[in-house]
Write a structure and sequence with these properties.
single chain; 429 residues; alpha+beta; L-fuculose-1-phosphate Aldolase; 9-stranded mixed beta sheet; 8-stranded mixed beta sheet; 17 strands; globular; Aldolase_II/adducin_N; L-fuculose phosphate aldolase; metal ion binding; lyase; metal-binding
Length: 429
């Protein structure tokens, strides 16, 4: 959720968010712009014609309510549509405009991604809209986009241009932007596999209305084991975000501390910015005081209780593997030795089982099948350590991408049974 009392200066927030967007390859050196409207009505905005890969806080322009500009550079040439959106939607306090490849592809086809692929994308992106083409930087473009936002849209595709997303804070707008691009990328990949499956209203409600109910407790001082696991989880969650295996609003990662106790990522927190103190300790029916565990905590707990060999779990949404989750196309990992050795046979879990409290999700994995595809909800991967689990997640996504790419070349050739038996014998599988 957005911070109701911002403590970070708009210059720094714009600089840091643009760095993240550029680092994720979701815009180009010259493309895109970000803005924040502060309580005084002044608009802070990224400048025109400045390298997005080397943006500094001093580069950010401020357009005062009287029209005067503060800063060494002129504001973005797209300032007119930022101003128009703010005038049309008083609830919007920040805007992200960029040219991420998947959403640009939709803009070229005059389409908008259907966010009913995933409950989180549908919830985060808000109402989706489409604005007709107008000259970049023109007043007419501002009028076209503002009219779409005034109609109640929050994430808007610009015809033959890109995307504009608004939010109640820049962090909120970024989350929408990232989730929207994620949905677009997944749809493009999934369309190469087969018919795409979308969620119904009851299915969306099932995910939205789930919750976890743990009693609050004050845990004792953290042991070195817990401290090390906190460090590892934060490190790999951050790496997962930067490698696009996780996104800021999706997924959960946990590690067993001992017995029934495990650490898990919190709910409604940006995954990449997590610190060791943000992770939540869950022990039986209790959770660490003052923190909110991921809503997937009950599913993690059920797996730990049923499978003593599992020491870490991740629910994630890497694009290529997730593309398999929204179609009926099976992901065959009998394609290269590494894939089979690490993953064995990857199962498929019917939609919604991971949201139930009956523990059935634990049946989806075993020592001989450590990963599964979750229908319309990404993947589940388990392992004997945080590193082992993350490694398997990487292999799963790499395999899924290779299979999708191979389908564009010709018929995929899986390894025959005798090769599989040879691998089982050689690696004691």
């Amino acid at each position: 959720m957005a911070n109701k009392r911002p403590l970070i200066h708009p210059r720094d927030e714009i600089m840091n968010t643009m760095d993240r967007i550029y680092r994720y390859r979701m815009t180009t050196t010259s493309g895109g712009n970000l803005s924040i409207r502060d309580d005084a009505g002044d608009i802070w905005i990224s400048p025109a014609r400045i390298d997005k890969g080397n943006l500094t806080r001093n580069d950010i322009a401020c357009v005062r309510t009287d029209g005067s500009v503060e800063g060494p550079h002129p504001p973005s040439s797209e300032f007119p549509f930022h101003k128009a959106i703010y005038q049309a939607r008083p609830d919007i306090r920040a805007i992200v405009h960029a040219h991420p490849v998947a959403l640009v592809a939709f803009s070229m086809c005059r389409q908008t991604p259907n966010t009913r692929l995933f409950h989180q994308a549908h919830s985060v992106c808000g109402r989706v809209g489409f604005a007709p083409y107008a000259l970049p930087g023109s007043e007419r473009l501002g009028e076209s986009i503002a009219a779409t936002f005034a109609d109640g849209c929050d994430s808007v595709i610009l015809e033959n241009h890109g995307v504009v997303v608004g939010g109640e804070a820049l962090s909120h707008a970024f989350e929408r932007f990232e989730a929207f691009e994620f949905a677009g990328k997944t749809l493009i990949k999934a369309s190469q596999l087969g018919e795409v499956r979308y969620l119904t209203d009851p299915q969306l409600d099932q995910a939205a209305n789930r919750s976890v109910d743990y009693q609050s407790f004050e845990p004792p001082a953290a042991t070195p084991v817990e401290q090390e696991l906190r460090r590892q989880l934060c490190s790999f969650v951050r790496r997962g975000c930067r490698q696009r295996l996780l996104i800021s609003t999706e997924g959960s990662f946990s590690a067993r501390v001992d017995g029934d106790a495990f650490l898990i990522t919190p709910t409604q927190r940006d995954r990449e910015s997590l610190q060791v103190e943000d992770l939540v300790l869950v022990d039986g029916s209790r959770r660490e005081a003052g923190k909110r565990a991921s809503r997937a905590a009950a599913a993690h707990q059920a797996i730990y209780q049923r499978h003593p060999h599992v020491q870490a779990i991740v629910f994630a949404h890497p694009v290529n593997a997730t593309a398999f989750s929204v179609t009926e196309s099976p992901l065959d990992v009998r394609t290269i030795p590494e894939s089979y050795v690490f993953l064995r046979d990857v199962g498929r879990v019917a939609y919604g089982i991971q949201y139930q409290t009956d523990g059935r999700i634990a049946e989806a994995i075993s020592a001989h099948s450590p990963a599964a595809i979750l229908e319309n909800d990404g993947v589940l991967v388990t392992g004997g350590s945080v590193l082992d689990t993350f490694d398997r997640l990487e292999v799963l996504e790499s395999t899924a991408e290779a299979v999708i790419n191979a389908n564009a070349i010709g018929k995929v050739s899986a390894m025959p049974d005798q090769v599989i038996e040879e691998l089982r014998t050689a690696f004691n599988l």
